[in-house]
Amino acid sequence: MKGFEERLARLEQLSEQIRDNEIPLDDAVRIFEEGVKLARALERDLSRVERRVQVLVNEPQAEDEEPILELFPDLDSLSNQGDDQS
C-alpha cells in the first residue's frame, strides 16, 4: 500500500489530468473512478488518524501526574514567561 503522501500526490495529478478539455470521455471516466477510490481511501486514513488522536488526547493521566489541558503546554509556558516580565 502506498503512503498517504504518495496517494495524495496521485490524486492531485488525476485532478489536473481530468481538467484537460482534450481528454477523451473514456479516459476521463477512468481517471475520475481512480480519483474517487483514492479520495475515499485518503478519507478513511484521515478518519483513522483522527480517532487515534482523540484517544491520545482523552487518555487518562496517571494519578501522580498533573493533568495537562492544553494541546501544546510547552508553547503556553513560553508565552506566559513574557507576561511575567511586565
Describe this structure in words.
With about 90 residues, the protein is an all-alpha fold. It has one domain. Helices cover about 70% and strands about 0% of the residues. It contains three helices and no strands. Helix 1 runs antiparallel to helix 2. The longest helix has about 35 residues. The model has no long low-confidence stretch (mean pLDDT about 80).
Q: What structural class do helix, strand and pairing data support?
A: mainly alpha
Share of residues in strands: under 5%
**Quaternary structure type:** single chain
Low-confidence segments, given as residue ranges, are: none
Tell me how many strands there are: 0
Q: For the residues shown, what is the average pLDDT?
A: 82
Q: Could you spell the SSE succession in H and E letters?
A: HHH
Approximately how much helix is present in the residues? Answer: over 70%
What sort of overall outline do the alpha carbons produce when their principal axes are compared?
rod-shaped
Number of domains: 1
Biggest beta sheet summary: none
Q: What is the rounded Rg?
A: 22 Å
Total of helices: 3
Q: Termini, distance in Å?
A: 55 Å
Short descriptors:
mainly alpha; 86 residues
Brief sketch in words of this structure:
The chain is mostly helical and 86 residues long. It contains three helices and no strands. The longest helix is centred in the middle third of the chain and has 34 residues.
